[in-house]
């Protein structure tokens, strides 16, 4: 089990960690996996070469190589390391105390979470777009790493933690601006944090957040929420329809780093089956759509995608 060595934090500073721990930590959220064999690489290369308008779905397994943990990976995911569970949408909306706890944890974790950078897998997919191989990319991640890599033909299916929305008037603002407001409202607030979570917050005890102040929307005084799809919420219908349209324009589907356990992403594999589209999956461990794929490759996303050429 890996726990990042956070310490007592000033509200406006990122945690200081030794360089060696940073380098080691980047891969400690990646499940154990042997090197992908040459035959599997050849089959995946052939699959990508045959595709002319490739539709790609990415998940948390892509970002674990950037040092962001996922929820479900065996031995290293959040569910394996702790009994903590992510915030539910209904609880966030219903309870001011829950929102206070959520934002306090998110505030402490933000400097670390927002500093993560794209890895070789993100960069490879961006190159595929530049070469005209990748028609559309749908990510279930909220970490903005595809955008940081320069991906343009992109839908963030579950939103993005770098944006904040008002539940009252719908105004969208930058998460970085909210961080400055937190600092202004809580100049003396300090907290000692535990391990980092996949959605960017850290673990704090309830008594640590009692005096943390949370701002309201500048425009209407409404409740502020990350522009992400919380557990128990549903993806915007217009977004789902848009993605279905991009899928219909494509001729093959590649899943990268996702177990597809959440229906919001799995539905597009069902649609691909109905359209009789070829499907390949690159992931460590089983996925919900293995029975729909003509090719399943086990391997680390960055290692594999870096050697696949967008021919």
From TrEMBL:
Cofactor remark: Binds 1 zinc ion per subunit.
Reactions accelerated catalytically: N(6)-acetyl-L-lysyl-[protein] + NAD(+) + H2O = 2''-O-acetyl-ADP-D-ribose + nicotinamide + L-lysyl-[protein]
Stretches assigned to the Deacetylase sirtuin-type domain: 34-311
GO CC terms of this entry: mitochondrial matrix
Subcellular location: Mitochondrion matrix
Record has Nucleotide-binding as a keyword: no
EC number(s) reported in the record: 2.3.1.-
Similarity section: Belongs to the sirtuin family. Class II subfamily.
The protein's name: NAD-dependent protein deacylase
Record organism: Oreochromis aureus (Israeli tilapia)
